[in-house]
Amino acid sequence: MKGWPHLVCVALVCLLPTVAAMAQNATVAKPAATPPALRIAITFDDLPWASLDPNTPLPAHGSVPPRIAAESARLLQAIKQAKTPAIGFVNSARLLVHGQQQPDRVAMLHAWLDAGLELGNHTATHVDLNAVGVPADEKDILACDAVLRPLLAKRGLKPHWFRHPYLRTGRTLEAKAAMKTFLNDHGYRIAPVTITDSDWIWAAAYAKALDRGDTATQTKLRAQYVPYLLRMVNYFQHRSIKLLGYPLPQVMLLHANALNADTYPDFVAALRQRGYRFVSLEQAMQDPAYQRPDTFTSALGTSWIHRWAMAEGRSWKFYSGEPTSPKWVIDLAGVPANSE
Q1: How far is 334 from 168, CA to CA, in rounded Å?
Q2: Count of structural domains within the chain
Q3: Mean pLDDT across the stretch 37-55?
Q4: Is residue 248 part of a domain?
Q5: CATH number of the domain bearing residue 56
Q6: CA torsion 236→241→243→249, rounded to 10°?
Q7: What is the rounded (10 degree) CA torsion for 287, 293, 298, 302?
Q8: In this predicted model, what pLDDT tens digit does every residue of 188-224 receive, in sequence order?
Q9: Superkingdom, according to UniProt (predicted)?
Q10: For the stretch 30-40, what's the b/e string if a residue is b when 16 or more beta carbons lie within 10 angstroms of its beta carbon?
C-alpha cells in the first residue's frame, strides 16, 4: 500500500489541468460588447429651394436669383463631397412664376438627380392637411405628382416617398386612414421624421445676415448652428433608446437653404466623429419600429418618437429637455417667440 505522500502527488497531478484552465480564463478579458450601430438618414424639404416661390422677383436672366443658384450648388456639392445619401421633397409650385414652369428651376431638380440623390413629393403648394382637409390635400399631392412623376420617368424612376408639410398628418384617425389609403393607391409611402428641429428659424436669421452683408453674424450663426443640430440629434437618440431600448436609425428633417449649404460639411463630420453612419431613407425604414401604428391626431406636427411615446401613454417627463433655439436667433429671424 502506497503512503499518503504518493496519493497527494497523484491528486495534484490530476488537478493541474483544471487549475491551469481556471488561471487562463481568469487572465483572458471578455471581449467588449459591440456598441449598437448609430445610423441616420438625412432628408431635405421644400425643393427646389425653400425661399423660391411663385412670387420671387425675376432677375434679369432666368427665374432663379444668382445667390440662390449659388447656394443650391453649394449644398449639392457639400452632399456629394460628404458622400451621404439624401432625399429632397419637392413643392412643385416653387417651379412656377406667374403660373409658368421655369426651366432653370426644373434644372435645380435635375441637378439633384444628377448628384445621385432622390426626390419625393411634398405637395404642390406646401398645403396644411389639418387646415384644408383631405380632398384638398389629395388634390395638391396629385398636382405635385403630375410634375414629379414624368420628371423621374425620364430616368427610369418613380416617386415613392411623400412627406406631409408641417408634419401634420390629420386631426382624426379617419383622416389619417383616408390619406394612407390614398397614398398607397398612388404608390407612395409616408416619410416620417424622428429628428425635428427649427433650422428654418436659423435659416431666416442667416438670410437676414446675408442680406445685410453682416459677416460677423453669419460666422456666429454658423458656429452655433451645428452644435444646436447635434444637441437635437442627441436628444432624439436618447429618447429612442428610452422608448425602444436601442438607438433607432434616425430620419432627420432639414430644409434646402443657405445655412445648411454652408454648414453641411461640418455637421456631417461631427456626426461621423460621434460614430454615425449615413443611410438612405429606405434603409432607415427597415427598422421594425417604423411599423408601429401612428395614432397621433394633434393639430400640430411632431417627431414620430414622440408620437409613439404618446401612444404608450408616457408621462410629460419623457418629452422634457428638448433643445431650443437661442432668443437672439429667434429675434433676428423675426418670428414669434413660440414658433418652435
Answers
A1: 24
A2: 1
A3: 94
A4: yes
A5: 3.20.20.370
A6: 70
A7: 0
A8: 999 999 999 999 999 999 999 999 999 999 999 999 9
A9: Bacteria
A10: eeeeeeeebbb
Distance of alpha carbon 45 from alpha carbon 267, whole angstroms = 17
Query: What does the pLDDT average to over 55-64?
Result: 79
The Cα-based distances of 187 to 23, 149, 162, 184 in angstroms read: 63, 11, 10, 5
User: Is pLDDT of 56 > 80?
Assistant: no
Tell me which residue has cell 432607415. Answer: 284
**247-279 confidence digits (pLDDT tens):** 999 999 999 999 999 999 999 999 999 999 999
For residue 288, what are the domain limits? Answer: 38-333
Alpha-carbon gap, residue 248 to 276, rounded angstroms: 12
CB 199 within 8 A of CB 247: no
Question: 324 lies in a domain?
Answer: yes
β partners of residue 276: 38
Distance CA 135, CA 198 (A): 29
In a domain, 12, yes or no: no
Asked, for residue 185, whether it belongs to a domain, the answer is: yes
CA distances from 274 to 198, 277, 285 (A): 22, 9, 22
Radius of gyration of the chain (CA): 27
> Beta strand 100-101 with 118-121: parallel, antiparallel or unpaired?
unpaired
Residue entry with cell 411623400: 162
- Would the pLDDT of 151 be above 50? yes
What phi and psi values does residue 39 have, to the nearest 5 degrees? -130, 150
Q: Are 183 and 189 in contact (CB under 8 A)?
A: yes
**Residue 268, all three cell numbers:** 456631417
Q: How far apart are the first and last CA of the chain?
A: 92
How many whole angstroms separate alpha carbon 50 and alpha carbon 271? 24
Report the DSSP pairing between strands 38-47 and 118-121. unpaired
Residue 285: CA count within 13 A, CB half-sphere: 12
Ordered alpha helix ranges (H), the chain:
4-27, 66-82, 103-114, 129-132, 134-153, 173-185, 199-212, 215-244, 258-273, 281-284, 304-311, 327-333
CA 42 – CA 80 distance, rounded (Å): 13
